[in-house]
Design brief:
The chain is of the alpha+beta class. The chain has a single domain, classed as Gcn5-related N-acetyltransferase (GNAT) (Aminopeptidase, 3-Layer(aba) Sandwich), CATH 3.40.630.30. The protein is 31% helix and 31% strand. The chain is built from 5 helices and 8 strands; from the N terminus they run E-E-H-H-H-E-E-E-H-E-H-E-E. Strands 1-2-3-4-5-6-8-7 form an 8-stranded mixed β-sheet, with helices on both faces. Helix 4 links the parallel strand 5 and strand 6. The radius of gyration is 16 Å and the shape is globular. The site of coenzyme A has 18 residues, from strand 5, helix 4 and helix 5.
């Protein structure tokens, strides 16, 4: 357990938690992204949060994977990959924020900002120079959030998934230099 504030805690996800993580994301993900997908995101959730994929992600040594707990309730996930480079960015010591999803009912209350500030502080202490992540361009909430926290555009790609509506396939890589 990592206490970020009195109410906000990160709880490490363990291998026996795979079903709990799946159920959580089966609720949270569609609330934010179902309109992106022809099948409302079912295929995406089933593949990203399958037992097999969760166990694979948990076995990655350079990654940390947490439940976000707010007032004793699990309300999201948070995954960090240390030493993961943004393709094309020539800088040592980069960390990727791989996943951050908070339940709709808790969004807009400063939790995301506290999580990212905590990550920044930890990364700086560990000698990291850059935090980066992938963000969907057509999800303005997330985009505005990162912009406000000082993240800048670096590059973009288009996701190849047939089930994803064509007009929302753009995904940008955004980053922040740590000082
Ligand atoms: C994106 C997300 C992580 C942001 O976390 P959050 O707790 O809702 O955001 P916060 O309340 O900490 O907001 C931090 C700042 O961003 C701003 N912000 C948040 N949402 C915003 C929006 N829709 N428009 C403009 N600004 C916004 C806030 O105003 C706040 O600024 P302030 O400190 O000056 O008040 C969260 O909303 C979420 O999980 N969304 C759904 C899933 C998702 O899209 N995840 C990102 C995948 S890349």
């Amino acid at each position: 357990m990592i206490d970020i504030t009195e109410e906000l805690v990160l709880k490490e996800i363990n291998t026996e938690d795979y079903n709990q993580l799946y159920n959580l994301m089966n609720e949270i993900y569609p609330l934010a992204y179902s309109h992106f997908w022809i099948d409302n995101g079912a295929w995406y959730v089933n593949s990203q949060y399958s037992k097999e994929n969760i166990l694979r992600e948990l076995s990655e040594e350079k990654a940390d994977y947490y439940f976000v707990v707010f007032n004793d309730e699990i309300i999201g996930n948070f995954r960090i990959i240390w030493d993961e480079k943004l393709p094309g960015l020539n800088q040592e010591n980069q960390v990727k924020l791989h996943r951050v999803y908070l339940h709709q009912k808790t969004q807009g209350n400063g939790i995301g900002k506290k999580l990212l500030s905590w990550l920044e502080e930890k990364a700086i202490k560990k000698g990291y120079k850059v935090i980066w992540l992938d963000a969907m361009d057509e999800q303005p909430q997330a985009f505005q959030f990162y912009k406000k926290l000082g993240y800048k555009y670096y590059s973009h790609t288009f996701l190849p998934y047939n089930l994803l509506h064509k007009e929302v396939r753009k995904m940008s890589q955004i980053y922040k230099r740590l000082t």
